[in-house]
Design brief:
mainly alpha; Leucine-rich Repeat Variant
Length: 294
Amino acid sequence: MKTDSIITDKKSYTVHSKSGMDLQSLIKAMRHSNLGIRWRAALALGEIGEPALKPLIKALKDEDKDIQWLAGIALSRMGKPAIPQLIRAMSEKEYDVRWRATIILAKFGEAAVDPLIDLLKEKESDLRWHSALALSLIGKPAIEPLIRALKDKDWFVRVRAAWALGEIGDSMAVEPLIQSVNDQDWYVRWSAADALGKIGDRKATKCLIAALREPDSYVQVPASWALGRLGDENSVDALVQALKASDWYVRWGAIEALGKIGDKRALDHLKKALDDKDEYVRTAAEEAIEKILS
């Protein structure tokens, strides 16, 4: 059948009757010069379901970006049957294919949560990152599984779970993340502190102040950033103490946080930091003072 004849072939667009669809014609129609025909073909393929699944997964790899986009629309209409194929597509070499598979899976919501949690345990880092991204886009249905993942034996799973919870931003995750600030792995502690800052619940203030006393600057600094985001004036004294740290990175992080909190009690300490031996710290102090006084 010629592609141009598709527009007159009503059975190709009979969306409500699966038996009336011509699969091969619809696949061809996705390449039609008329965008409306391509769009309707994609919608119809999505209604066909499993028989159209493999051709549509293949279309995700097409050189034509419009074909990739239309295939994504069709796959997103299929629901649960498409999940295993899309999980496989997340391992494809082409970044666009991995990205589209991620976004489509996120649209499936709760049905995709468990397979995506399992992907957090894969060895390939990009695959784990995409699964965490999809879970963060799913939102609330993914919160409890992600909280359980904070206890996973693999530190990288815990890191990605903390990141996703921070992106979702639900206060349900605050207490579990507070516990993760004490994780044995510094990267998990960093991710948990950063997530708490994104969520913005001041219940985390006490825990983050304690994290400022960690010996590792890669934990102290995200704790400072988080405290700055929370804007809790109860953290000012602890942040002022952090200005005495020998590591410029810690001093810089504390100054950034003090500037965001905006409490004038920090001004004298920030003025002293104008003479700091590190240029980044001096610049940060100037900016923080300007923020507080403005």
